[in-house]
Here is the input.
Amino acid sequence: MAPQKNAKAKRPNHRYVIDVSAPANDKIFDVAAFEKYLHDRIKIEGRTNNLGDRVTITRGDNKIIVEAKIDFSKRYLKYLTKKFLKKNQLRDWLRVVAESKDTYKLKYFNVSNEAEEGSGDEDEE
Here is the structure.
């Protein structure tokens, strides 16, 4: 006998957090502009401005929270975040790092001046 399909299909609930506290505290990152960018650019079923009640974007304490009641990729949020950084010419200083299964964090690149200073003197003989 085949299994019965009485149960309703479980709707996925995804909650992703993008922590922008480091650059926002240094006042080089506009959290409100990033929230608006996500709201304008996220595509649902191939169309922008189609969020409805399926995807909600909220801002609080230097964090952007994206909650989706449909299938939604965390990788898509990373893609949009990197596009926003490139648009605002911040991509050279900031990177997007996965902190946990559902969290991204913007961090500064590690820049060391020691490697640049030491390499010039060693080649001369």
